[in-house]
Amino acid sequence: MIVRIFSETQYRLDESHHAKLDELDDVIVAAVDADDEDKFHESFEELLDYVRKNGAALGDDELEASDFILPPADLSFAEAAEEFTGEGLIPDPPAATA
Fold first, then answer.
1. How many CA atoms lie within 13 A of 20 on its CB side?
2. Which domain holds residue 25?
3. 10 Å Cβ neighbour count for 57?
4. Structural domains counted in the chain
């Protein structure tokens, strides 16, 4: 899957990371819902760091459709209240078929 961090670059991550990204996204939504700005900043930075550390940055000459687009690192708490609502930016991964 391809994840773009707005104003940075795109990262290729294996689909096995989808559940962890969703989990981190859910923590951010909960922090915003609870009006906990400190927890939001901590959790949002954790999400961005996870993508950066576990993804392979695409080269400048590679441009692929992004599966998920994350806001820039300098996203304000007020802006987050508009972005991280409901299920957040990363929906639940598809259920595994038996």
1. 13
2. 2-83
3. 14
4. 1
The burial class, CB within 10 Å (0-12 / 13-18 / 19+), for 38 is exposed
Half-sphere exposure at residue 37, Cβ-oriented, CA atoms within 13 angstroms:
5
- Specify the pairing of strand 68-70 against strand 56-57: unpaired
Each residue's pLDDT tens digit, 11-62: 999 999 999 999 999 999 999 999 999 999 999 999 999 999 999 999 888 8
Q: 22 in a domain, yes or no?
A: yes
